[in-house]
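Reagents: none. Just compute today. Adenine deaminase.
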Amino acid sequence: MPLPKAELHLHIEGTLEPELAFELAARNNVELPYADTEALCEAYRFEDLQSFLNLYYELMAVLRTERDFEDLADAYLARAAAQGVRHAEIFFDPQAHLARGVGMGTVVEGLWRALGRSETDHGVSTRLIMCFLRDESAESALETLDAAKPYLDRITGIGLDSAEVGHPPVKFREVYEAAAALGLRRVAHAGEEGPPEYITEALDVLGIERVDHGLRCMEDPALVERLVRERIPLTLCPLSNVRLRTVDVLADHPLPAMLDAGLLCTVNSDDPAYFGGYAGDNFDAVRSQLGLGEERLRELARNSFTASFLEDDEKLRARYLAEVEAYEF
Ligand SMILES: Nc1ncnc2[nH]cnc12
Ligand SMILES: [Zn+2]
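Predicted 3D structure written out:
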């Protein structure tokens, strides 16, 4: 039995496996510019975040109907459950779909068809987090929040993703204020490729409660001290960092130093279909490549539930935490 864990940094569009991409392309009569799954996998050699994002947005063309989003989420939840994920807080990128003429209702209702029965089907509780694309305008983010208003009973929070450098958090001050007023939780990608100042700005200006990635905080000791003091969780994605060349090799990943510094770190998969592994694979990788011992792994699992947005179900959180403590390696 794998270690029980929560996954807090997972883009549902990043779980589109090559086989499912071709299946959905055939179902929807969408032509992909790749002959087969092998040719597609050849495209999975990324130079940086942008080279990945180009493929990530290109392949989304196959997602058209509620059933497509349902099948995508269902496939992810089955894989995640098999790797010990007990709770998943799932990002989605509505602007990438709205721009292709796929409505907010199609996306949310489709995902919800799978998420609504996930506890029964997979034993995984879920939350949905709607991300804004930071390389789109602030106006577009506000329009997207408006389009989501009929679905807010299904959306727990908002996030910020896509190309980071050149798109500082302050650009999205207004939409984060509006989301907070609607009672939405707030997270943002910061310090993945962007500088530590973006992490500070996301905390101070956007009021985020968790930092997605946050890797580059290690360049600023005062920021590390603050993150430790304020117990702000970081959702790290080790295999993603290697594939997007944020770190050269996994053995160089700062996760052990971050844990030693007292940071509330979690381990997640980001875009597992593209980066070579789901949540459990990321745990296995940090165990074998970074030499993390059993108590460090238990700490990471404990942190994942502590950092989750389960304030509306503390009994469930307590049950998960008890499972972590009772786990025998
Ligand atoms: N790792 C990542 N960083 C920024 N935006 C993303 N969208 C999907 N994955 C992402
Ligand atoms: Zn991400």
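The chain has one domain: 5-312.
Action item: order primers for follow-up constructs.
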